[in-house]
Amino acid sequence: MSASSLRNGLDRLYDASAWAAAFMMVGTLLMVVLGMLDRYVSLSFRGTDMYAGYCMAAAGFLALAHTLKKNEHIRVTLLLNAVPPRAKKALELWSLSAAVLLSGLFCFYSIRLAYQSWDFNDISTGNDATPLWLPQIGMAVGTLVLLIAFVDELVLEFLGQRVTSSNDEALHNE
Fold first, then answer.
1. From the CB of residue 154, how many other CB atoms can be counted at a distance below 10 Å?
2. Please, what is the Cα angle at 134 between 19 and 34, to 5 degrees?
């Protein structure tokens, strides 16, 4: 597998995760609208509030990796801009290594939580009685893609190919 096909595959993964997050946001909207209709017309839709929450949580987790790769995560660059380039590279490598470790732990425990919910047949305590492993899949997948994105960023930084936003770009976002 060539480096360009690997890069294209990773970029497609991050984009697919962002599209899934967008789909979950639409799901949140639909559940809120159905909940409102149910209150006014009594359509007997059960659990729309819970499903809106599930969709919103999945959207948040699924969007993490794409947001990271687009340099939209909040970064504190005050220290990074004050140190020489070698120290900056060392700090970036340290930060990304810590992020890989923490996102790896988050991923492991998210997947484990979804598996345990499935294994124990754990269901929601709301009136929807949804098996909890279903909404937890969004968190597990989102944290897995985030872990992959942080490993990607760490490798790019190590190879000197990582692109980050400059101070001017950060100021234009506000």
1. 18
2. 70
pLDDT by position in tens, the chain (length 174): 788 899 999 999 999 999 999 999 999 999 999 999 988 888 778 888 899 999 999 999 999 999 999 988 887 788 888 899 899 999 999 999 999 999 999 999 999 999 999 999 999 988 888 999 999 999 999 999 999 999 999 999 999 888 776 655 555 555
Q: Which residue's structure tokens are 């699924």?
A: 62
What is the CB neighbour count within 10 angstroms for residue 152? 22
pTM: 0.89
The β-bridge partners of 123 are 131
Task: Give the count of alpha carbons within 13 A of 12, CB side only.
Answer: 6
Nearest to 55 by CA among 74, 35, 40: 35
Both tokens assigned to 145 = 């893609």
Residue that has been written with the tokens 């979804």 in this structure? 114
Cα–chain center distance at 8: 19
